[in-house]
From TrEMBL:
Organism field: Salix dunnii
All residue ranges annotated as the RNA 3'-terminal phosphate cyclase domain in the record: 48-157
Pfam families for the chain: RTC (PF01137)
UniProt-recorded name of the protein: RNA 3'-terminal phosphate cyclase domain-containing protein
Domain of life the protein comes from: Eukaryota
């Protein structure tokens, strides 16, 4: 094997997107100065790393424990993109917190997945099934993400954003009476 040529990047801005694009383009990257302005000496060893991507395979019956921070929504966006361009369809069960202050799984299911269909992603095989919900601090709930494979995306031009016809929401509660949830629904 010959010497690997790394594309050099600086800083930690958009690190997830950088690693995602490096994986899709099979480009090795070296990220430096991740914590350039951090004065804590504890992190000195973690200021640089190299990433050499392999082949994105996909697969069925995969399971990943996301922990309690960040929530499952943090992992969904890169997983969908990697799954679309993998060798085999992706089916993965994610365990952890389904809702936090960032993107929750309901928002991802009702906003991102329909948007992907406009880019030519087939409806068959593209699914996010919420099997159970979990909130901080313990989480412990899971979702099932299924992503088909595609060859390319279709270009989309969005000129007219349209009118808002209705606003919908999802409500759930944990460890409280369902009366609180009903009151919240009627107050909205």
């Amino acid at each position: 094997m010959g010497k690997v040529s790394y594309k050099k990047l600086r800083g930690s801005q958009n690190l997830r997107q950088r690693l995602l694009l490096a994986s899709l383009s099979a480009t090795p990257v070296q990220v430096e100065d991740i914590r350039a302005n951090d004065t804590d000496m504890f992190y000195v060893a973690g200021i640089k790393f190299q990433y050499r991507p392999g082949i994105v395979m996909g697969g069925r019956h995969l399971v990943h424990d996301c922990g309690v921070n960040p929530a499952i929504g943090y992992f969904l966006k890169p997983l969908v993109v990697l799954g679309l361009f993998s060798k085999k369809p992706l089916s993965i069960r994610l365990k952890g917190i389904t809702y936090d202050s960032r993107v929750c799984v309901e928002t991802f299911r009702s906003a991102t997945l329909p948007l992907l269909k406009q880019f030519g992603v087939p409806s068959e095989g593209l699914e996010l099934k919420i099997e159970s919900r979990g909130v901080p601090p313990h989480g412990g709930r899971e979702v099932l993400l299924s992503v088909p494979i595609i060859r390319s995306l279709t270009a989309v031009t969005r000129i007219d954003e349209g009118m808002v016809m209705r606003i919908r929401g999802v409500t759930f509660s944990t460890r409280v009476s369902s009366q609180f949830e009903n009151t919240m629904i009627h107050a909205a």
